[in-house]
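Troubleshooting: if your tokenizer reports a length mismatch, compare your output against this known-good record of 326 residues.
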Amino acid sequence: MIQINKSKELEFQQIAELHFKKLNENLLPTRLKLFKEFCESNNFQELYKIIQENLKIIICGKPNELEKVISKVEKLLPNEEDRKQELLRKISSVFNYGAFSEKQEDIGKWDAYRLVEKLGVNSCPYCNCQYTFTIIDEDKNEKIVRPPLDHFFAHSIYPYLAISFYNLIPACAICNSTFKRDVEFDLENFIHPYIEEFGFNAKFTFIPDSYEDLIGISKSHNSKTQLRINPDIDSSLKNRINNNIAIFHLDDIYSQHDDYIKEMIRKQIIASGAYLDMLLKQYPDAFQSKEELYQFAFGNFPNEEDFHKRPLSKLTHDIAEELGLI
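Known-good structure output:
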């Protein structure tokens, strides 16, 4: 739903290169050697050659490049199911997500903790409802907590993409384990949070159920919050947005935040639609910028490139705009 810090695209590519360098120093060499022996003794030399030649793309290639790798590898998998599953298990042992995601005793060792720490994504890009903090206590030499990493291309289906940088999405546990699980995603049918987002092609709107909802004093939860899709966008993007909304139950999830929206409605009514102006007039020297004023008023970030920093940032912006608060 929101893009993973799109203002840092160049920096992410540098992190992807670092990811490849670290894996190539530690995790991959011995495993690739064993895999080569297996391929040579089981007549999978061509597959090994494809993986070896495309190794850097597999680890740090962009999502569209990963889809090309999928196309190449899938053509070489055997038709016989038992033989295919044995091969996939061997591939999984090379691109071993379990080894990469396991909390390492060596606090400096490159693993899932260090990767998500570098990314600095503080809210789930799929829902923008939950925090996704990474906490590492350097003084206590302890990796404390990190968000789950979702595989955009399911690693149960494509084990060779299990530790690919652009296939690892820091997500909340609900989106990763409850909603998406092993649903097969692709770029044609779903939004990939490293390369696109809903943006202003789909905006939240509040649908009140009563007059009390309309003035922000209702105690009921019968109102709804929905994502309204811009009717003018192309059908392909509309399809991807609708699929993401459905998989992650975004309309259902956001309808549970009606109390938050009602607070914003009260602010709009109290100040006759000029809440920010009212604050600025009362406290003319308190704010250094319009962004700081907005953050004080609504507890969130106003700019799209900062939406990843805090949950509900897109909802806050869209509803504030709908109410005429900004």
